[in-house]
């Protein structure tokens, strides 16, 4: 049986790993959008190559959390901290996959000029980057108010996604030659929207950690 001091040290390591995952995901989204704006195939390729690093971080969290459960046999809030860490790591890993999906769109745009200036997609991504950072901070600080903020931010992302979808649909109707690329850009919007959903899931995990009840913030 580990001592409380050792257990708290393990929890601190979990926090640090989650912060590292969150920072990785923020950068992956930023670089994937930069690659899209510039149709930068090399940057897109690098994002795809680096993704396994995020998977390794998730594995380390799973191993550490499982060890803490096995050796300390935590109950109540201590157990919720570890279970929340598992769920948050899973959401972050999926967010990394979505950044890779954006990078793959960039590769499919090889040799093409963008059919329109990208304004709302980068704006969506900026909001989601902040959501990612704040969702992790809400976990580290056990800040329920910051966790609930995810729902409001997610509404902004959803509104931008609806606007982007309408604009791309109009482009496709006006000029059928834009259909292929407009569809790809619509996919990017969907990926960013899903990114926000996962950040909101992290907010739900934080509320569960603090209160013992899991709300539905994706409404």
Structure report:
The protein is an all-alpha fold and 219 residues long. The chain has helices spanning 4-38, 41-72, 76-108, 120-141, 144-174, 179-211. Helix 1 packs antiparallel against helix 4 and helix 2 packs antiparallel against helix 3 (76-108).
Describe the structure concisely for a colleague:
The chain has 219 residues and is mostly helical.
List keywords for this structure.
219 residues; mainly alpha; 6 helices; 85% helix; 0% strand
Oligomer: single chain
Instruction: Classify the secondary structure makeup into a structural class.
Output: mainly alpha
Tell me the total number of β-strands. 0
Low-confidence runs of at least 5 consecutive residues: none
Number of helices: 6
Strand content: under 5%
- Determine the N-to-C terminus distance: 42 Å
CA-based gyration radius: 19 Å
- The shape, in one word, is elongated
**Biggest sheet statistics:** none
């Amino acid at each position: 049986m580990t001592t409380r001091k050792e257990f708290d040290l393990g929890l601190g390591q979990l926090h640090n790993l989650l912060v590292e995952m969150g920072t990785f995901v923020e950068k992956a989204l930023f670089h994937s959008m930069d690659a899209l704006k510039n149709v930068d195939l090399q940057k897109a390729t690098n994002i795809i190559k680096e993704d396994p690093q995020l998977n390794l971080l998730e594995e380390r969290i799973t191993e550490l959390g499982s060890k803490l459960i096995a050796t300390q046999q935590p109950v109540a809030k201590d157990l919720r901290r570890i279970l929340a860490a598992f769920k948050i790591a899973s959401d972050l890993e999926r967010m990394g996959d979505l950044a890779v999906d954006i990078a793959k769109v960039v590769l499919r745009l090889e040799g093409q000029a963008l059919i329109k200036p990208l304004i709302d997609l980068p704006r969506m991504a900026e909001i989601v980057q902040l959501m990612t950072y704040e969702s992790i901070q809400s976990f580290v600080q056990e800040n329920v108010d910051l966790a609930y903020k995810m729902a409001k931010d997610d509404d902004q992302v959803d509104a931008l996604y609806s606007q982007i979808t309408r604009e791309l649909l109009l482009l496709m109707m006006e000029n059928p030659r834009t259909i292929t690329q407009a569809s790809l850009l619509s996919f990017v919007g969907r990926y960013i929207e899903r990114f926000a959903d996962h950040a909101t899931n992290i907010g739900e995990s934080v509320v569960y950690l603090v209160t013992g009840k899991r709300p539905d913030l994706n409404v």
